[in-house]
Amino acid sequence: MNTTTRRPLIAGNWKMNLDHLQSIAFLQKLEWALKDANHDYGAVEVAVFPPFTDLRSVQTLVSADKYEIAFGGQDLSAHDSGAYTGEISGAFLSALGAGYVIIGHSERRQYHGETDELVAAKVAAAHKHGLVPVICVGETAEDLEEHGPSAVPVAQLRTALGGAEQGKEVVVAYEPVWAIGSGQAATAEQAEQVCAALRPVVAELLGEEAGESTRVLYGGSVKSGNIAGFMRQPNVDGALVGGASLQLEEFSAIVRYQKHVV
Ligand code: PGA
């Protein structure tokens, strides 16, 4: 079990699922389920990442009913404002009360051609607008075969952190591409190996203290049945959950992993 002072973070990446009405219904049920279970948000932070069109509704619900659930965007523009049709500024996310923003998810890298350099520019934009970037890194199956498990994520993180401002918080998410949506999660030992290799990169580029305090998440086919194994690893501080974050019982069981860590 992780014995550091880092507050674990369980983050639900809804991807392109749930419209604004569905998102409100889901979030209400999630909050009720966690309240029923006496979830201690101080012990395990919970964040959700809805589609952009849901964010205003989510914000309204969260602030009206004083939810302790954090929320963020799934992406942001590297630019502040201007003629960038279809883009969303970090300033807009910040104005909506978003605390976080996912950057460099493998689906953005794969389908939208996002490079490590663009990811770095987006990290800079997130910090500029007061958002905590959740920086996603991870190797493909081919990378794994060719370079081993940590070389590619380490290189991706090194470039991405080039955009980070000293003294500002980042979250790192290690998501092996082969494990995302495949039902085939990495083993807890594999996750630990790479997360343990990523932490020194944070320390090197953002300082020793950041290396200690930065939360490094694992993502890729996380479910209630495997979360405890990941959370037992000393360098895994939470999870970025895709598919299972859309299933109420699964996601609340993942959030409450401490109840089933043996
Ligand atoms: P998954 O997705 O949990 O469905 O594998 C994780 C992610 O893409 O963040």
Over all CA atoms, what is the radius of gyration?
17 Å
Which ligands accompany this protein? Answer: 2-phosphoglycolic acid
Low-confidence stretches: none
Major beta sheet, strand line-up = 1-2-3-4-5-6-7-8
Q: How many beta-strand runs?
A: 8
Per CATH, what is the topology?
A: TIM Barrel
Task: Kindly estimate the percentage of residues that lie in beta strands according to DSSP.
Answer: 5-15%
> What is the name of the CATH superfamily?
Aldolase class I
Structural class: alpha/beta
Distance between the termini: 9 Å
CATH architecture: Alpha-Beta Barrel
Order of helices and strands: EHEHEHEHHEHHEHHEHEH
> Biggest β-sheet, characterized?
8 strands, parallel, barrel
Name of the CATH first level: Alpha Beta
Which geometry do the CA atoms define?
A: globular
Question: What this model shows, in words?
Answer:
The chain has helices at residues 20-36, 55-64, 90-95, 106-111, 116-128, 141-147, 151-160, 188-206, 208-213, 227-231, 248-255, and strands at residues 9-13, 45-49, 70-73, 100-103, 132-137, 171-174, 215-219, 238-241. It has 262 residues and is α/β, with parallel strands linked by helices. It has one domain (3-260): Aldolase class I (TIM Barrel, Alpha-Beta Barrel). Strands 1-2-3-4-5-6-7-8 form an eight-stranded parallel β-barrel, surrounded by five helices. Strand 7, helix 10 and strand 8 (238-241) form a beta-alpha-beta unit. 2-phosphoglycolic acid (PGA) binds at residues 13, 175, 180-181, 219-222, 240-244.
